[in-house]
From TrEMBL, chain A:
Residues making up the signal peptide according to the UniProt record: 1-17
Protein name as catalogued: Ribose transport system substrate-binding protein
Species whose genome carries this gene: Micromonospora parathelypteridis
Pfam family, any one: Peripla_BP_4
UniProt family annotation: Belongs to the bacterial solute-binding protein 2 family.
InterPro entries given in the database record: Peripla_BP_I, SBP_2_dom
KW Signal (keyword) present: yes
Residues covered by the Periplasmic binding protein domain: 47-300
CDD domains linked to this entry: PBP1_sensor_kinase-like
Domain of life: Bacteria
From TrEMBL, chain B:
Name of the protein described by the UniProt record: Ribose transport system permease protein
Predominant place of localization: membrane
GO CC annotation: plasma membrane
Ranges annotated as biased composition (Polar residues): 1-10
Transmembrane segments: 36-54, 74-94, 123-150, 200-220, 249-269, 281-299
Chain spans, region Disordered: 1-20
Membrane topology value: Multi-pass membrane protein
Length: 334, 354
C-alpha cells in the first residue's frame, strides 16, 4: 500500500514538526520602539479600535459611538478593524495596529482567552489599552468599560413587578444564545427583579439565540401552548420584535405586553419600537464607546495617570414617555 | 505528420464555431507566455509585494510594511490557511473540493485542548491522536466520494456539519481555555511554543507551513502519486483505463486534506491558548481562494503547489497592506473578491493564447 505509506510518512513528519520545539523563544522579546508618544494637548494621536465583528447592529453602534466621540477631540484619529468573529483575525488586527504605531488601543474582544496575549503585548509595549464590553484575562490592560447585565435584567424585573404587571401575571421569557454570559445574566437579574411580586409567574422560557426570526417562530409555538400570556420578556429587542410579529399574526398583540433590552439608537432598534408602541419598554445596554474616548482623552491629552481600572455602565429605562428624547440624546439618526 | 489542411478547417460545420480563438505565437515567445502563466501567481506575489512596499505608510522614516515585525505577522497570520490550502490543492487537482477543512480545524483545536487539559495527555500523544482524527475524517469522506460516487462538494458539505457537531458535543459548546504548567488541568509549557518564534523573528507556525509547503512541492513534483493525481483530474476515465488506482488516490487525497486541516487546528489552539468549536469558520473559502489565486483550475488536472503557496502569501500581504492603510473593512472584502476574479480570469486567458 504505497499511498498508506505516503500518508503515514506525512503524518510522522507533521507530528515531528509540531512536537519538536527545538531552540525556540517565546514572543514578547522584540523590544521595539516605545510606541506611546508623549501625552499632552495639541498633539496628534492615532487610536486603534479593534472590533470583534461588524455584522451586529450593536457593534456598529459601538463603532459609531467611538468615531463620533473621537471627532470631537482635536488630534484624535481612529482606525477601526473588523475581526469578523475570528479570534485569529483579531490577533492579526491588533498586530497590524502595533506595526502602524497606534498611541492607544480600544478593543472589544471576540473571546477572552485568545486575545489576552496580544492585549498584554500591546500593554507591555507601553500602549494604553481600553477593553470594551467583553473582558480579557489577567490585568494587563489599562481600563475595562462594560455594562452590567445582571443589573439590567434586575431593572427589567423591577419594572415588571411595579409598573408593567403590578397585579401579577403570566410571563414568557425569550432568552439569548444558550451558554452566552449575557443570556445567563439577563435571566438571573430578571428573576431577582420580579422576586418582590410573587404574583408574577414565568410560565415558559425558550431560546431564540438573539435572532428576530427565531423570536417569531418561538413565540408562535408558545402562543399555541400558552393561551393566556400577559407579557413577553425578551433578552434583546430583535427577539421582542419577532415575538410581537407572531402575536400580531395571531391577533393577540394588544393583549400582550412586550419588553426588550439593548435600546440601540438606530431606525431598526428598540427605542423606535417603543416610540411606535410595539414594545412597552426597553433597557439600554450602553456600548461604552463614548466613555472609552473620554478615558482616552484623559490618558492621552490630560496625561492622567489615575484612571479607573473598571467602569460599570448604568442602564436607562426607555418607555413611550422618554423614547424620543433618549433617541436624540444617544445620537440616533432619523 | 500532415499539417492541418486549411480547406478542411473551413469546411468544418459552422454550427460549432471555435469558442476559443487560438493565437499562434513564435516558439520563443510561446515559451515566454507559457512561463508567464505557469508562474502567474509568483509574478502576482512579487507585484503585490512591490506595490505593498510602495504604498506602505512609513513611521519614523521606516517602511512599516517591510519592518521585520510586520513581515513576521504576515507569515504567522497566513500559515494556518496556507497549510489547509496545501491539502486543498491535492483535492482540487483531482477535480474535487473539500468544504470540511475549517470545521475539521475547529474539531482539532477542541481535541488538542480537551486531550491536554481535561485528559492530561502529553503533547506527543495529543498531536498524534488529533492528526489521526483529522486523517480518518478526511479518509472517510474520500471513501464515501470514491465508493458511492457522490460529489465531493456534497460529501464534504455534510462533513462540515458533522465535524462542527462533533466539536460542539466534545467541548460542550464552549471554548476550552488552555493554561500552561505542570498541574493536572494544565498543558505542557512546550505547547505554547506554537505562539512563539525562532530568534524572536520567524514564527513557529510559519516554519511549519514552510516545511509542509516544501514537502508537498516535492511530493507533487516527483512521485507516482502526483502523476496519478494529475491524471485523475485531467481525465478520470482515461486514468482508470491506464491503470491508475483511482479510488485509492481519492481516499489518500482527502486523507491528506483532513490531516493538514487537523495540523492547522493544533497550531490554532497553540496560538490562541484555546480550542473553540467555532474556530476556523469560513477558512475553507480562504483556502480555496489561495488555491485559485495560485492558478490551480477548479476543474482539476492543472495547477501547482508553488502557486498555492504564492497564492496564500499574496492573500496575506493583501490583507496586511489594506489594514496598514486603514482601508475600510468592507472595502477590503471587495478588493479581495476582485483579486480572486482577476486571478481566475488570467487562467481563462491562458488556453486561448497557448
Amino acid at each position: 500500500m504505497r499511498y498508506t505509506r505516503t500518508a503515514l510518512t506525512i503524518l510522522t513528519l507533521t507530528a515531528l514538526a509540531v512536537t519538536t520545539g527545538c531552540s525556540v523563544e517565546k514572543d514578547g522579546g522584540d523590544s521595539g520602539t516605545d510606541a506611546s508618544a508623549q501625552c499632552g494637548s495639541g498633539k496628534e494621536f492615532l487610536i486603534g479600535m479593534s472590533q470583534a465583528n461588524n455584522a451586529e447592529p450593536y457593534r456598529q453602534v459601538m463603532n459609531d459611538d467611538v468615531t463620533t466621540a473621537a471627532k470631537a477631540v482635536t488630534g484624535f484619529q481612529v482606525v477601526v478593524s473588523d475581526a469578523a468573529q475570528d479570534n485569529s483575525k483579531q490577533v492579526a488586527d491588533v498586530e497590524n495596529f502595533l506595526s502602524q504605531g497606534i498611541n492607544l488601543l480600544i478593543i472589544s474582544p471576540n473571546e477572552a482567552k485568545p486575545l489576552t496575549g496580544v492585549v498584554k503585548k500591546a500593554y507591555d509595549k507601553g500602549i494604553p489599552v481600553i477593553v470594551l464590553d467583553r473582558k480579557v484575562e489577567g490585568d494587563a490592560y489599562t481600563a475595562f468599560i462594560g455594562g452590567d447585565n445582571v443589573a439590567i435584567g434586575k431593572a427589567a424585573g423591577e419594572y415588571y413587578a411595579k409598573t408593567l404587571l403590578p397585579q401579577g401575571g403570566k410571563v414568557v421569557e425569550i432568552s439569548g444564545l444558550p451558554g452566552s454570559t449575557p443570556a445567563a445574566e439577563r435571566a438571573q437579574g430578571f428573576r431577582e427583579g420580579i422576586a418582590s411580586n410573587p404574583k408574577i409567574e414565568i410560565v415558559a422560557t425558550q431560546t431564540a439565540e438573539w435572532l428576530r426570526e427565531k423570536g417569531q417562530s418561538v413565540m408562535d409555538a408558545m402562543l399555541k401552548a400558552q393561551p393566556d400570556i400577559d407579557a413577553v420578556y425578551a433578552h434583546n429587542d430583535p427577539m421582542a420584535e419577532g415575538a410581537y410579529l407572531a402575536a400580531k399574526a395571531a391577533g393577540k398583540e394588544s393583549a400582550i405586553k412586550f419588553t426588550g433590552i439593548d435600546a440601540l439608537p438606530v431606525a431598526s432598534g428598540g427605542i423606535k419600537a417603543v416610540e411606535q408602541g410595539r414594545l412597552q419598554a426597553t433597557f439600554q445596554y450602553a456600548t461604552g464607546g463614548r466613555e472609552a474616548i473620554d478615558l482616552a482623552k484623559k490618558i492621552l491629552v490630560d496625561c492622567s495617570k489615575d484612571v479607573p481600572k473598571s467602569t460599570t455602565l448604568g442602564t436607562t429605562q426607555i418607555t413611550k414617555e422618554n423614547a424620543a428624547q433618549v433617541y436624540t440624546e444617544l445620537g440616533g439618526k432619523q | 505528420m500532415n499539417s492541418p489542411n486549411p480547406t478542411t478547417v473551413a469546411a468544418s460545420p459552422p454550427e460549432t464555431p471555435p469558442r476559443r480563438r487560438a493565437i499562434r505565437l513564435p516558439k520563443d515567445r510561446q515559451a515566454i507566455v507559457d512561463n508567464f502563466f505557469r508562474f502567474q501567481s509568483l509574478f502576482g506575489l512579487v507585484a503585490v509585494f512591490l506595490i505593498a512596499i510602495a504604498v506602505s505608510p512609513s513611521r519614523n522614516g521606516e517602511n512599516v510594511f517591510l519592518s521585520s515585525g510586520n513581515l513576521a505577522n504576515i507569515v504567522r497570520a497566513v500559515s494556518e490557511i496556507g497549510i489547509i490550502a496545501v491539502g486543498m490543492t491535492f483535492v482540487i487537482l483531482i477535480g474535487g473540493i473539500d468544504l470540511s477543512v475549517g470545521a475539521v480545524l475547529g474539531l482539532a483545536a477542541v481535541g488538542s485542548a480537551t486531550l491536554m487539559v481535561d485528559s492530561g495527555l502529553g503533547i506527543v500523544p495529543t498531536v498524534l491522536i488529533v492528526l489521526f482524527i483529522g486523517t480518518a475524517f478526511g479518509a472517510t469522506q474520500g471513501a464515501i466520494v470514491a465508493r458511492l460516487g457522490i460529489q465531493s462538494f456534497i460529501v464534504t458539505l455534510a462533513g462540515l456539519q458533522a465535524a462542527r457537531g462533533i466539536a460542539r458535543m466534545w467541548s460542550g459548546g464552549l471554548g476550552i481555555p488552555i493554561a500552561y504548567g505542570d498541574g493536572p488541568q494544565e498543558a505542557p509549557e512546550t505547547f505554547s511554543l506554537l505562539s512563539g518564534s525562532i530568534n524572536g523573528v520567524l514564527p513557529v507556525p510559519a516554519l511549519i507551513f514552510l516545511a509542509i509547503g516544501i514537502g508537498a512541492l516535492l511530493v507533487l513534483r516527483s512521485t507516482a502519486f502526483a502523476r496519478h493525481v494529475y491524471a485523475i483530474g485531467g481525465n478520470e476515465k482515461a486514468a482508470r483505463l491506464s491503470g491508475v488506482p483511482v479510488r485509492r488516490v481519492r481516499v489518500t487525497v482527502f486523507a491528506i486534506s483532513g490531516l493538514l486541516a487537523a495540523l492547522a487546528g493544533i497550531i490554532h489552539a497553540g496560538q490562541l491558548n484555546q480550542g473553540s468549536p467555532n474556530d476556523g469558520a469560513g477558512y475553507e473559502l480562504d483556502a480555496i481562494a489561495a488555491v485559485v489565486i495560485g492558478g490551480t483550475s477548479l476543474a482539476g488536472g492543472s495547477g501547482s503547489m508553488g502557486g498555492t503557496i504564492a497564492g496564500a502569501l499574496l492573500l496575506g500581504i493583501l490583507n496586511n497592506i489594506l489594514a496598514l492603510n486603514n482601508i475600510d473593512a468592507n472595502v477590503q472584502l471587495v478588493v479581495k473578491g476582485l483579486v480572486i476574479v482577476a486571478a481566475a480570469a488570467l487562467q481563462r486567458l491562458r488556453p486561448r493564447i497557448a
